[in-house]
């Protein structure tokens, strides 16, 4: 095992031998890191645990999000934070509680940095979706600012609860689109037809020659059939 004191002494000797300012700066930072690590050995473990807990809680979620959606008089929450798949949560009072304790919250999320009863999102008609911290241990943040009172969430806000970070979206309007014309619908239906595979250019000439031969043979066959029909007709006229 490498002794940190030995490495520190070696770096000091290197500083005396090397006048390079960039190297001196790097070695100086290394000594600072060694001193910090010796005084706070648990700091690195805490950082690693924080990173791993966030990764485990969002496994399979490439883009964690929460979307508040309003349809008429009803409001919903759509999110992929639970079970690593997108789900819609409908709540009669329009209050969604977030935390680790599935017995106390209706949106339970497995994250060791979350409190059992961490935060809530509430929809108020004609106003919007509000985020509230419920006395959590590690706090709630919106766009990097610590949440000290309830806050109206805006479309695109970055929310962090403990080590859990997600983007919040808001949908309060539905735009009704016009009907498609029959021509467009026909084009859409034809789009499912697989395209014809292009012929390899190397065999294009041979394929064209084969088509020409086949067409010539068909023409000869038609001519022979026509001549045969004329001969038969002439024979029938001569020998009634």
- Order of strands across the widest beta sheet? 3-2-1-12-11-8-9
Q: What fold name goes in the CATH topology slot of the domain at 65-172?
A: Tumour Suppressor Smad4
The outline comes out as: flat
Q: Give the helix tally.
A: 5
Mean pLDDT: 78
Q: Under the CATH scheme, which class of the domain at 65-172?
A: Mainly Beta
The portion of residues assigned to helices is 25-40%
Structural class: alpha+beta
Low-confidence stretches: 54-61
- In the CATH hierarchy, the architecture of the domain at 65-172 is Sandwich
In total, how many beta strands? 12
The amount of beta strand, in percent, is 15-25%
Structure description:
With 240 residues, the protein is an alpha+beta fold. Among the domains are: 21-49; 65-172, Tumour Suppressor Smad4. The protein is 39% helix and 23% strand. The chain has five helices and twelve strands. Strands 3-2-1-12-11-8-9 form a seven-stranded mixed beta sheet, with no helix packed on it. A hairpin with a 2-residue loop joins β11 and β12. α1 packs antiparallel against α2 and α2 (21-39) crosses α3 (41-57). It is flat and about 100 Å long. Residues 54-61 have low confidence and may be disordered.
């Amino acid at each position: 095992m490498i002794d940190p004191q030995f490495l520190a002494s070696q770096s000091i000797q290197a500083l005396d031998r090397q006048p390079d300012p960039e190297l001196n700066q790097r070695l100086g930072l290394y000594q600072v890191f060694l001193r910090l690590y010796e005084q706070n050995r648990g700091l690195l473990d805490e950082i690693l645990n924080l990173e791993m807990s966030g990764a485990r809680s969002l496994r399979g979620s490439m883009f964690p999000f929460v979307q508040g959606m309003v349809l008429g008089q009803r409001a919903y929450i759509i999110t992929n934070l639970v079970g690593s798949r997108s789900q819609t949560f409908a709540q009669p009072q329009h209050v969604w509680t977030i935390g680790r304790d599935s017995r106390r919250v209706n949106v339970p999320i497995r994250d060791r940095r979350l409190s059992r009863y961490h935060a809530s999102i509430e929809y108020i008609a004609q106003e919007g979706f509000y985020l509230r911290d419920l006395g959590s241990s590690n706090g709630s943040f919106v766009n990097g600012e610590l949440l000290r009172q309830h806050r109206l969430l805006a479309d695109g806000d970055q929310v962090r609860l403990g080590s859990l970070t997600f983007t919040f979206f808001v949908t309060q309007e539905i735009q009704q689109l016009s009907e498609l014309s029959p021509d467009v619908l026909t084009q859409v239906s034809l789009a499912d037809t697989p395209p014809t595979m292009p012929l390899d250019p190397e065999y294009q000439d041979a394929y064209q020659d084969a088509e020409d031969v086949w067409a010539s043979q068909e023409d000869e066959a038609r001519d022979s059939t026509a001549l045969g029909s004329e001969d038969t007709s002439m024979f029938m006229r001569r020998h009634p």
